[in-house]
Amino acid sequence: MSTVAAASDAAQLKSAREDIKELLKSKFCHPILVRLGWHDAGTYNKNIEEWAKRGGANGSLRFEIELKHAANAGLVDALKLIQPIKDKYSGVTYADLFQMASATAIEEAGGPKIPMKYGRVDVSVPDECPEEGRLPDAGPPKPADHLRGVFYRMGLDDKEIVALSGAHTLGRSRPERSGWGKPETKYTKNGPGAPGGQSWTAEWLKFDNSYFKDIKERKDEDLLVLPTDAALFEDPSFKVYAEKYAEDKEAFFKDYAEAHAKLSNLGAKFDPPEGIMLDGVAGEKFVAAKYSSGKVRELSETMKQKIRAEYEAVGGSPDKPLQSNYFLNIIIVIAVLALLTSLLGN
Ligand code: HEM
């Protein structure tokens, strides 16, 4: 087990992402990789300033002591699946690989593009692992209060709790791991991947909004509803979002993508501090921001995407400003048009 703590390298990150896609195609392991990323990040405590005591996306989940936490039952299998990719790319940290595997799994399962950035630094030793008990229970006495207690500690709000819970559109619960779910159902008895467990949705390798539809209807005994899932339609504040997502897949995808990216950054220390972005969206050195106000100011991801789309529509890019003769060309075209109009007018 490597204890390398350095941050990641962009070229290697891109290759690693291709390897993750291949792994997903052959193993159908999308759900467990999403759970791996979530359980590394979800230990974050916003009330603790010190890295890595605050927990979060720092690769600590690779250490046995944390993998043995009850909430992480079964995740050693996820680590085994991606360890060969880690071994291949010394320039990719565990913290980045866990989050990349999760985001790529969502995207490859048909979910939204997650505006990810990379460059997370790994913790180096097991002593830096968080104590047990920071992740949510599935069956606490007051599920809504419990969810708020855990997710508010991470700095996430009601909308984000509901959106992120929608990740249960993927995967299964296994009694031998978490104690929840049936040993098998008509949807899981033949896999794909290792058979068994109980899924929240019929097509549990497809990312869509069926989780919200299914827990609302509760018509199928073969589909799982944990007490914390049920709370999303019982609590008045959660319910607003759960109803919306059951109706509107696009609204769910938009909120999910934002919440997932936020979750993936919790507690992380980035090197370089602005992060490394691979697809021209999150964490980029956004030169365009300089043009508007004269000072560099961090824009929201949505705004960056809008600006990028506008630049790209005219063949440019915010980090590669348009060539000056582009404007000259426009002026020439306008002048020619004006000339033609006046000639035709005569
Ligand atoms: C809201 C509080 C949550 C609770 C109480 C909860 C609980 C659980 C439980 C009990 C399992 C079954 C594990 C097993 O038996 O293998 C599970 C699986 C899973 N969870 Fe959650 N979870 C929560 C939130 C989340 C979030 C925020 C995400 C991701 C963003 C997530 C993603 C998953 C996935 C993808 C699986 C399926 C894993 C597989 O098929 O191997 N969960 N969760």
TrEMBL record:
Region (Disordered) residue spans: 169-199
GO MF terms held by the record: heme binding; L-ascorbate peroxidase activity; metal ion binding
Record EC number: 1.11.1.11
Catalytic activity line of the entry: L-ascorbate + H2O2 = L-dehydroascorbate + 2 H2O
Source species, domain of life: Eukaryota
Cofactors, names only: heme b
Listed InterPro entries: Ccp1-like, Haem_peroxidase, Peroxidases_heam-ligand_BS
Domain Plant heme peroxidase family profile: 33-304
Transmembrane segments: 326-345
Keyword DNA-binding: no
Pfam hit, one: peroxidase
Localization in the cell: Plastid, Chloroplast
Enzyme class: oxidoreductase
Entry's family note: Belongs to the peroxidase family. Ascorbate peroxidase subfamily.
Descriptive protein name: L-ascorbate peroxidase
Native source species: Populus tomentosa
Organism lineage: Eukaryota, Viridiplantae, Streptophyta, Embryophyta, Tracheophyta
